[in-house]
Protein backbone atom coordinates (compact mmCIF):
# COMPACT_ATOMS: atom_id res chain seq x y z
CA UNK A 1 0.00 0.00 0.00
CA UNK A 2 2.78 2.46 0.86
CA UNK A 3 4.64 1.66 -2.35
CA UNK A 4 1.43 2.29 -4.30
CA UNK A 5 0.97 5.66 -2.56
CA UNK A 6 4.54 6.71 -3.45
CA UNK A 7 4.01 5.49 -7.02
CA UNK A 8 0.79 7.53 -7.29
CA UNK A 9 2.59 10.64 -5.96
CA UNK A 10 5.27 10.20 -8.63
CA UNK A 11 2.79 9.52 -11.45
CA UNK A 12 0.65 12.53 -10.51
CA UNK A 13 3.76 14.72 -10.21
CA UNK A 14 4.61 13.80 -13.81
CA UNK A 15 1.02 14.11 -15.03
CA UNK A 16 0.57 17.63 -13.69
CA UNK A 17 4.08 18.92 -14.45
CA UNK A 18 4.76 21.49 -17.15
CA UNK A 19 7.19 19.06 -18.84
CA UNK A 20 4.49 16.38 -19.31
CA UNK A 21 4.70 14.55 -22.63
CA UNK A 22 3.98 11.13 -24.09
CA UNK A 23 7.64 10.17 -23.66
CA UNK A 24 6.87 8.38 -20.37
CA UNK A 25 3.89 6.27 -19.25
CA UNK A 26 3.03 4.84 -15.82
CA UNK A 27 1.04 1.61 -15.42
CA UNK A 28 0.08 -0.71 -12.55
CA UNK A 29 -0.55 -4.46 -12.53
CA UNK A 30 -2.19 -5.90 -9.41
CA UNK A 31 -0.46 -9.10 -8.26
CA UNK A 32 -3.74 -10.85 -7.35
CA UNK A 33 -5.52 -9.95 -10.58
CA UNK A 34 -2.59 -10.13 -13.01
CA UNK A 35 -0.70 -13.24 -11.87
CA UNK A 36 -0.16 -14.27 -15.50
CA UNK A 37 1.74 -11.02 -16.19
CA UNK A 38 4.01 -11.68 -13.19
CA UNK A 39 4.63 -15.24 -14.43
CA UNK A 40 5.44 -13.97 -17.91
CA UNK A 41 8.03 -11.57 -16.46
CA UNK A 42 9.45 -14.27 -14.11
CA UNK A 43 8.60 -12.23 -11.00
CA UNK A 44 7.29 -13.76 -7.79
CA UNK A 45 7.03 -10.75 -5.49
CA UNK A 46 5.31 -7.41 -5.38
CA UNK A 47 5.81 -4.50 -5.45
CA UNK A 48 8.28 -4.37 -8.33
CA UNK A 49 9.07 -1.29 -10.38
CA UNK A 50 10.24 -1.90 -13.95
CA UNK A 51 11.26 0.28 -16.85
CA UNK A 52 10.47 -0.95 -20.34
CA UNK A 53 12.76 0.70 -22.90
CA UNK A 54 11.28 1.81 -26.25
CA UNK A 55 13.30 -0.83 -28.11
CA UNK A 56 14.42 -4.24 -26.91
CA UNK A 57 13.71 -6.16 -23.74
CA UNK A 58 14.27 -4.82 -20.21
CA UNK A 59 17.72 -5.44 -18.78
CA UNK A 60 18.64 -6.14 -15.17
CA UNK A 61 19.16 -2.41 -14.45
CA UNK A 62 15.60 -1.77 -15.67
CA UNK A 63 14.24 -3.31 -12.44
CA UNK A 64 14.30 -0.94 -9.46
CA UNK A 65 16.16 -2.29 -6.40
CA UNK A 66 13.59 -1.82 -3.62
CA UNK A 67 15.62 -3.61 -0.94
CA UNK A 68 18.64 -1.36 -1.30
CA UNK A 69 17.12 2.00 -2.20
CA UNK A 70 13.56 1.97 -0.83
CA UNK A 71 10.47 3.12 -2.68
CA UNK A 72 10.13 6.83 -1.92
CA UNK A 73 8.87 8.89 -4.84
CA UNK A 74 12.09 10.92 -4.88
CA UNK A 75 14.25 7.80 -5.31
CA UNK A 76 11.92 6.52 -8.03
CA UNK A 77 12.17 9.88 -9.82
CA UNK A 78 15.98 9.73 -9.69
CA UNK A 79 15.95 6.17 -11.06
CA UNK A 80 13.61 7.23 -13.88
CA UNK A 81 15.90 10.17 -14.70
CA UNK A 82 18.87 7.75 -14.92
CA UNK A 83 16.95 5.40 -17.22
CA UNK A 84 15.10 7.87 -19.47
CA UNK A 85 16.59 11.39 -19.07
CA UNK A 86 13.12 12.57 -17.97
CA UNK A 87 13.37 14.63 -14.79
CA UNK A 88 10.30 14.65 -12.56
CA UNK A 89 9.93 17.13 -9.72
CA UNK A 90 7.95 15.40 -6.97
CA UNK A 91 5.01 17.33 -5.48
CA UNK A 92 3.44 15.85 -2.35
CA UNK A 93 -0.11 16.76 -1.38
CA UNK A 94 -0.46 18.07 2.18
CA UNK A 95 -1.52 15.50 4.79
CA UNK A 96 -3.43 16.91 7.73
CA UNK A 97 -4.60 13.59 9.23
CA UNK A 98 -1.89 13.54 11.93
CA UNK A 99 -2.71 17.10 13.01
CA UNK A 100 -6.43 16.35 13.13
CA UNK A 101 -5.89 13.12 15.10
CA UNK A 102 -3.66 14.92 17.63
CA UNK A 103 -6.18 17.75 18.07
CA UNK A 104 -8.97 15.20 18.54
CA UNK A 105 -6.94 13.28 21.15
CA UNK A 106 -6.01 16.43 23.07
CA UNK A 107 -9.62 17.65 23.08
CA UNK A 108 -10.89 14.20 24.15
CA UNK A 109 -8.40 13.96 27.05
CA UNK A 110 -9.03 17.60 27.97
CA UNK A 111 -12.80 17.03 27.91
CA UNK A 112 -12.46 13.92 30.09
CA UNK A 113 -10.32 15.77 32.62
CA UNK A 114 -12.75 18.70 32.62
CA UNK A 115 -15.74 16.43 33.26
CA UNK A 116 -13.89 14.61 36.05
CA UNK A 117 -12.24 17.74 37.50
CA UNK A 118 -13.68 17.13 40.98
CA UNK A 119 -12.47 13.51 41.15
CA UNK A 120 -9.13 12.74 39.50
CA UNK A 121 -8.34 9.66 41.60
CA UNK A 122 -8.50 7.44 38.46
CA UNK A 123 -5.15 8.91 37.36
CA UNK A 124 -3.46 7.24 40.34
CA UNK A 125 -5.07 3.83 39.67
CA UNK A 126 -2.15 1.37 39.33
CA UNK A 127 -4.34 -1.43 37.98
CA UNK A 128 -5.61 0.76 35.15
CA UNK A 129 -2.09 1.81 34.15
CA UNK A 130 -0.92 -1.84 34.34
CA UNK A 131 -3.76 -2.97 32.05
CA UNK A 132 -2.96 -0.18 29.57
CA UNK A 133 0.74 -1.15 29.59
CA UNK A 134 -0.11 -4.83 29.03
CA UNK A 135 -2.35 -3.92 26.07
CA UNK A 136 0.51 -1.95 24.49
CA UNK A 137 3.00 -4.79 25.11
CA UNK A 138 0.63 -7.41 23.62
CA UNK A 139 -0.08 -5.22 20.59
CA UNK A 140 3.63 -4.67 19.94
CA UNK A 141 4.50 -8.33 20.50
CA UNK A 142 1.81 -9.49 18.08
CA UNK A 143 3.18 -7.35 15.26
CA UNK A 144 0.47 -4.69 15.12
CA UNK A 145 3.08 -1.92 14.88
CA UNK A 146 4.70 -3.73 11.94
CA UNK A 147 1.27 -3.90 10.30
CA UNK A 148 0.74 -0.20 10.91
CA UNK A 149 4.09 0.71 9.36
CA UNK A 150 4.08 -1.71 6.40
CA UNK A 151 0.34 -1.96 5.67
CA UNK A 152 0.20 -5.63 4.60
CA UNK A 153 -3.01 -7.28 3.34
CA UNK A 154 -5.24 -9.13 5.81
CA UNK A 155 -4.68 -12.45 4.02
CA UNK A 156 -3.71 -13.73 0.56
CA UNK A 157 -5.95 -15.64 -1.82
CA UNK A 158 -4.10 -17.78 -4.37
CA UNK A 159 -5.61 -16.94 -7.80
CA UNK A 160 -4.87 -20.42 -9.21
CA UNK A 161 -6.63 -22.60 -6.64
CA UNK A 162 -8.55 -20.06 -4.52
CA UNK A 163 -6.86 -21.15 -1.27
CA UNK A 164 -6.62 -18.42 1.38
CA UNK A 165 -3.38 -18.08 3.38
CA UNK A 166 -3.51 -16.40 6.78
CA UNK A 167 0.19 -16.96 7.56
CA UNK A 168 2.85 -15.62 5.19
CA UNK A 169 5.32 -18.15 3.77
CA UNK A 170 8.32 -15.87 4.30
CA UNK A 171 9.92 -15.05 7.63
CA UNK A 172 10.43 -11.42 6.51
CA UNK A 173 6.74 -10.59 6.10
CA UNK A 174 3.39 -11.28 7.70
CA UNK A 175 -0.31 -10.79 7.09
CA UNK A 176 -2.61 -8.88 9.45
CA UNK A 177 -4.44 -12.14 10.24
CA UNK A 178 -1.15 -13.66 11.38
CA UNK A 179 -0.63 -10.91 13.94
CA UNK A 180 -4.22 -11.37 15.18
CA UNK A 181 -3.52 -15.08 15.69
CA UNK A 182 -0.35 -14.27 17.67
CA UNK A 183 -2.22 -11.67 19.73
CA UNK A 184 -4.87 -14.25 20.68
CA UNK A 185 -2.22 -16.81 21.61
CA UNK A 186 -0.29 -14.40 23.87
UniProtKB/TrEMBL annotation:
<feature type="transmembrane region" description="Helical">
    <location>
        <begin position="127"/>
        <end position="146"/>
    </location>
</feature>
<dbReference type="GO" id="GO:0018279">
    <property type="term" value="P:protein N-linked glycosylation via asparagine"/>
</dbReference>
<dbReference type="GO" id="GO:0008250">
    <property type="term" value="C:oligosaccharyltransferase complex"/>
</dbReference>
<protein>
    <submittedName>
        <fullName>Tumor suppressor candidate 3</fullName>
    </submittedName>
</protein>
<dbReference type="Pfam" id="PF04756">
    <property type="entry name" value="OST3_OST6"/>
</dbReference>
<feature type="transmembrane region" description="Helical">
    <location>
        <begin position="96"/>
        <end position="115"/>
    </location>
</feature>
<dbReference type="InterPro" id="IPR036249">
    <property type="entry name" value="Thioredoxin-like_sf"/>
</dbReference>
<comment type="similarity">
    <text>Belongs to the OST3/OST6 family.</text>
</comment>
<keyword id="KW-0812">Transmembrane</keyword>
<keyword id="KW-1133">Transmembrane helix</keyword>
<dbReference type="InterPro" id="IPR021149">
    <property type="entry name" value="OligosaccharylTrfase_OST3/OST6"/>
</dbReference>
<keyword id="KW-0472">Membrane</keyword>
Amino acid sequence: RQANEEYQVLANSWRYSSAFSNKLFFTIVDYDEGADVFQQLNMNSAPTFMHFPPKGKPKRADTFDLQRIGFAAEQLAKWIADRTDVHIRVFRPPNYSGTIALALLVSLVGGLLYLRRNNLEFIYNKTGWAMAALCVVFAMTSGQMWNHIRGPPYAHKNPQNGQVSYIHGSSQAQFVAESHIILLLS
